[in-house]
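Supplementary Methods, section 5.1.

A reviewer requested that the exact input to the structure prediction be made available. We therefore reproduce it here, unchanged from the version used in the analyses.
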Amino acid sequence: MKVYIVVVSYNRKTLLTKCLDALIGQSYVFEKIIVVDNSSTDGTIDYLNQNGFLKNTLVNLLQLESNTGGAGGFAAGMKYAFDNGADYVWMMDDDAVPHQNALEQLMKHATPNHIYGSLAVNGEDTAWTTTLLPESKIIDFKNLVPEISEVQSLPFLGYLTSKEIFEKLGLPDISYFIAADDVEYCIRAQQAGFKTYICGESYIEHPKSDRYTFNLFGKKLICLKLIPWKRYYDTRNRLLIARQYYGVKAFTQTLPASFVRLFAALLNEPNKFMQIKAFFVGVYDALFKHTGKRHDYWNL
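The structure derived from this sequence is encoded token-by-token as follows.
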């Protein structure tokens, strides 16, 4: 089985080299590492050259002409890998540092009929909240995640997919730019009959998401602290997914929940005026299906 690794990077050359060092040292024998450079402006390519990475036969560079966001970068990397003979593609951002046996542990469970993911951790904590099925149990500590468990969705952070799934689903939706493109891909996969699994012994070190719990009328909502331009994509893309997949619940559940998230942000986060602006233009663009890279258009 030929495994290609796709790493998407934008203006984080130091983090990228740490990621590449960890990938080159994997205990599982893989085919290639595809570095997708999203038109970085910080000298990433020169930095990779100076440090010898582009001379390594395991590393291929795919340099994009413009910044297409995480969604565009992962789509480009996935297409390149499968077009060049990959059986599996393992995807991650440039701030990921996989443990030496992360891919080996993942491939112990991998089959071409489902999606599998490494567990992003930060010390003993999970880097992202993980929801295990069928109980919809929310986990925040890595030692509580079993060796393998079905989950609602996985981030493009140690995300393993197969050629069979690619041939059925196609590529991630590049119109999302960043945020929730991975959620949309998981929903699409599940609707096509593919399940999504987390592999609890395949670890990737990653910065912990800045999250907090907001209580409203006895119900707990997990919220992320987001700068305004990221608030825009989080709001817009949640609603785009809801409109596409949830029917009337987009307006009876997702939209009201989005207003609750805004209220929580105004209580807990700075830049309140810009948070409000980012939220409402995100709602506007979701309603009128304005997609792609839009935060510059709105001066966020």
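The radius of gyration is 19 Å. These observations are discussed further in the main text.
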